[in-house]
């Protein structure tokens, strides 16, 4: 959800210095995941089907994927959602950066109140806030471990 009007209210949920960041951002993206994986898969079939999905693709989203999800434990569903949220967030901030737009990924906020504040049904799970805006600051890249420290070759 792209939050503009409710940004001040949303900021109250942000912990510590995150409050300042959300308050001062013109726009905050509140990233939610859809906990109803079945419904989501069928929606993809419905929407994609309208764009001429093959029978095989329809079968995948209507039957195979829901059957796979049904085997997931609660922990696996949670991991799957969090992983998807991370991938979406990363792609989003890279696209924003490419457009010359600044952003910051924020995990530190009170998730238990996000749905109420933003009036979003409980089916959707809050994952991250991503503040979005332009900055005059010239930012220096953060330190990253050398590649050889994080890749093991055998
Ligand atoms: C999962 C995750 C949670 C984060 N949570 C916060 C946060 O609560 N507050 C914050 O200021 N930055 C948060 N960040 C942003 C990082 O501090 C950092 O700014 C961002 O990953 C960009 O990396 P860099 O600044 O080290 O280059 C988070 C980043 C990630 C990936």
UniProtKB/TrEMBL annotation:
<dbReference type="InterPro" id="IPR029479">
    <property type="entry name" value="Nitroreductase"/>
</dbReference>
<feature type="domain" description="Nitroreductase">
    <location>
        <begin position="44"/>
        <end position="134"/>
    </location>
</feature>
<comment type="similarity">
    <text>Belongs to the nitroreductase family.</text>
</comment>
<dbReference type="GO" id="GO:0016491">
    <property type="term" value="F:oxidoreductase activity"/>
</dbReference>
<dbReference type="InterPro" id="IPR000415">
    <property type="entry name" value="Nitroreductase-like"/>
</dbReference>
<protein>
    <submittedName>
        <fullName>Putative NAD(P)H nitroreductase</fullName>
        <ecNumber>1.-.-.-</ecNumber>
    </submittedName>
</protein>
<keyword id="KW-0560">Oxidoreductase</keyword>
<dbReference type="Pfam" id="PF00881">
    <property type="entry name" value="Nitroreductase"/>
</dbReference>
């Amino acid at each position: 959800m792209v939050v503009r009007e409710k940004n001040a209210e949303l900021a109250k949920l942000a912990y510590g210095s995150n409050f300042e960041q959300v308050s001062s951002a013109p726009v905050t993206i509140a990233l939610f995941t859809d906990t109803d994986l079945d419904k989501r898969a069928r929606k993809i079939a419905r929407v994609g089907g309208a764009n001429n999905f093959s029978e095989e693709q329809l079968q995948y989203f209507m039957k195979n994927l829901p059957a796979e999800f049904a085997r997931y434990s609660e922990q696996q569903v949670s991991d799957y959602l969090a992983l998807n949220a991370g991938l979406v967030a990363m792609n989003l901030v890279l696209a924003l950066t490419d457009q010359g737009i600044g952003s910051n990924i924020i995990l530190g906020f009170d998730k238990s109140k996000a749905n109420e504040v933003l009036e979003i049904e409980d089916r959707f799970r809050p994952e991250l806030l991503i503040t979005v805006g332009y900055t005059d600051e010239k930012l220096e890249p953060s330190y990253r471990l050398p590649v050889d420290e994080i890749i093991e070759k055998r």
